[in-house]
Each structure stands twice: as C-alpha cells, then as structure tokens.
# Entry
Amino acid sequence: MDIIISNSSNIPLYEQVKEQIKNKIVSNELKTGELLPSIRSLAKDLRISVITTKNAYEELEREGYVETIPGKGTYVANKNKELIKEEQLQKIEGLIDTAVSIAKISGISKEEIREMLDILFEEE
Amino acid sequence: MDIIISNSSNIPLYEQVKEQIKNKIVSNELKTGELLPSIRSLAKDLRISVITTKNAYEELEREGYVETIPGKGTYVANKNKELIKEEQLQKIEGLIDTAVSIAKISGISKEEIREMLDILFEEE
DNA sequence: ACAACTGTATATAAACAGTATACACTGTTT
DNA sequence: AAACAGTGTATACTGTTTATATACAGTTGT
# Structure
C-alpha cells in the first residue's frame, strides 16, 4: 500500500494515514470487501507504531469506511456511494467558503480565485 | 472588541482569537498604530485565561502583525500591505488546491466548484 | 509614593499523539 | 489437539500541546 507520511507535518500521523486510505476508498482504488494491510505490516512499512495505524483504522471504522474483524483483518465496508460523494461535496464547500471569506476580507476578487481554480484543475 | 469564540470547536482558543484579530488587521478594521485591548480585559470579556490571550498576542507578534511594549500595551504593527495580500493569496491557493484534489478523487467537476464559488461569493 | 493599569514568568492540570509490550482471537499445519 | 504464525486489542508510559491560576515586574497619572 503506497502511503506517504511526513513526520514534520503538523497533521498527526494517524490522520495522514486515515486520509490517504479514505482517498483510496473514495476513488475506488480500494474496492468494497477488499482486505487492507494488517496494522502490523502497515506500521512496519511506514516505520510507525502499531497503535498509530490502529488509531487510523479505528477512525475509518467509526466513519463507516471499513470494518474490522478481530483476528482476521480490516476490510473496506460497503458504504453508500452517494453518501460519500455528498460528504466530499460538503468538504469542498467548506474549503471554498473559507477561501471566499479570506478573499472578501483582503479585497481579492472572484476572478483571481477563478483563475487559480482553472490553473489547479489543469495541472495536477 | 467583538470576537466570538467557541469552546466546542476543535480549533484552539488562542488560535481562534489570533485569527479573528488578524482578520481585523487585514481588513483594516484595526489600523496601524492602533491599541489592542489589554490581554486582561480581553480575557475577561471572553471569559478565558490571561495566558491564553497572551499566547494569541505572542503569535501575532511573531508573525509581525502587532508589537507589544511591556507595561504599555499591544499595538497594530506597520506591516507591509503587499506582503499581507501575498500571504492571503497563498492561503486561498492552498484551500483551492485541496478542494481540487478532493474533487478529482471523487469525480466532481470543475463546474460544480465554480457554481459553489459563484453562490458563496454573492451570499456572504 | 501610590494606585491602577499594562505585560511577564512560573508552576500545574488535562487532553492529545505516539510508543512498546504483553494479551487474545483466527486459521493453518502438523 | 497442539503448535504456530498471522490477525486485532488493552494497558501503561512518555512527551507535547492547550489552558489555567497566581505571583511578579514595568508604566503612567495622581
């Protein structure tokens, strides 16, 4: 499982792991029913503690993205695809909303943001 | 000074205070040389500790937004306006960038984001 | 000098992030 | 059935971050 974590980031390790796995589920790179790497092997890969990977998996389970069976492993859950898209839309709306707030405060125009959007959408 | 803080937010108190004061400086609601409320009076207003308001002011000073003189008070610093705008632009670019990343992962189109941008820009 | 205001320093408590290690469950191999 | 090698779980500990109370020190006007 290719996950890249940064120790110098201000984002907690378990959250970096959580987000990247969530992304793989949302993008369908990880499909429903698929077995995730064990917390141990993932921890060894990333050179972090077993407990940290466990925390990541626990949060994913709390949010309904995975299901874990003691002694067996952790599997991608059958989460409603429409619900997932709705969550992503809301996340984006939140980001755009703060961006707009900042723009208004500092007198930045809508066109400047539009340009950023155009450029960033092509680039990646 | 009207600042609204939420105890239930996941954002630390000192950071909520810091951001809102920074916004007032960026929007020129607080002008260069102006005296901020004392850490004590602000703490009393917001019903938080003196140390917490002090932490907020310290960070603002570290970022060059204010200057504080022991025994006298804390004043809005004469920070380069162009530099401030540059910082705000970068902050917005970061937000749009993550929004675009999420959109690409979950198959959300540029048009959907554009619509959000239009709506949010009119609303507020 | 004193009173009333400023910011500062020290010590403490609680929550959070990350860890190591010992424990318990599941499945396979013998 | 016993042994083993894999899975997740629970406990206990360390260091950092967030927030606090309280005692200290500088500035100003009377």
Summary: Residues 38-40, 50, 54, 57, 68-74 of chain B lie near DNA strand C (CB under 10 Å from a C1'). The CA atoms of residues 18 and 57 of chain B lie 7 Å apart. The mean pLDDT of chain B is 95. Strands of chain B lie at 66-69, 73-76.
